[in-house]
Amino acid sequence: MTHIKLKEISIYHPETVVNNSFYMKHYQEKGRDATKFLTDVLGRENRYIIDQKDENALTMAIEASKRVLEQANMTGKDLDMIVFSSQTPEYTAPSNAIQLHHALEAGNQTMTMDSNANCAGMTVAVDQAARNMLTNPYVNTILVVGSDYNSLMSNHDQEITYGNFGDAACAVILEKTEEDTGFIDSHYYVDSITYDKTYFPRHGLKNAILEGGKEQSIDWLPFDGDIALEPTYSMIESVLSRNDMTIDDIDAFCLSQFSIGNINRIQEHFHIEEEKIMFVGDRFGYTGTSSPFIALHEGIKSSRIKRGDNILFWTIGGGFQLATMLFKY
Q: Can you give the residue range of the structural domain that contains 213?
């Protein structure tokens, strides 16, 4: 029986680390105390931030992709498909995946595609890539890379973005195998009720080009984030049930790193042991599309995640959409 294995994973982040004291001072000068929000709600301490003119989401993706190919002892010509996931793409034409194709010297048979499901993007991309491989006999190896230049779109007036976001990329190689491992299943929940709460560019692409003087950073309008929790509990229970699994069968939880508060509530609801929760948001900040996979990478690096472990991914994208995925690493 054919399975889709996560062969290798690698990350890239900028060198510059910015800690909470910078943002606390920034908001103190505005007459606000952001300490409790940054530490207790978001769970932040440090984050990696781009401060070089020649770095962006694409350059980070290229570096992460080169690293993962080297780890896998592969070249670009071994890839049947390249999928690039980002909500801050450096280009819309040619696609960033085409740019990756060139940088990696991929072959003529290598398909390319950009995708964007906001912060849920890389999880959705891995899910869709795995399902494509299961149905397409000619696609055996796919590179999926997620990269967000989050600090580019952050709003300096709003702690939920400026004090929250970090910049990073993560790349994974998926391959067909006969081993009993890899992709198991996924489940989604979409409710577009908050479709108008987090626009970027703030005034749309047309106005960003034609009316360059307008402020285009993300404008995060207030909404009740708790509306995502009950559907989250339900979808996790559903995807486990239909695969004859329970919460105790999961060895590691790679959840959205947007907020330690959300992670804590999911952990409390399901009575999950602390050692199974992969939290890296205190070191990386919130990296958007790559967030659950950077948690996976760090879990593997620290030996908390091992081959054969059952992983549950969960994340949320703007608008909003929830995605959960089961994977045997």
A: 183-328
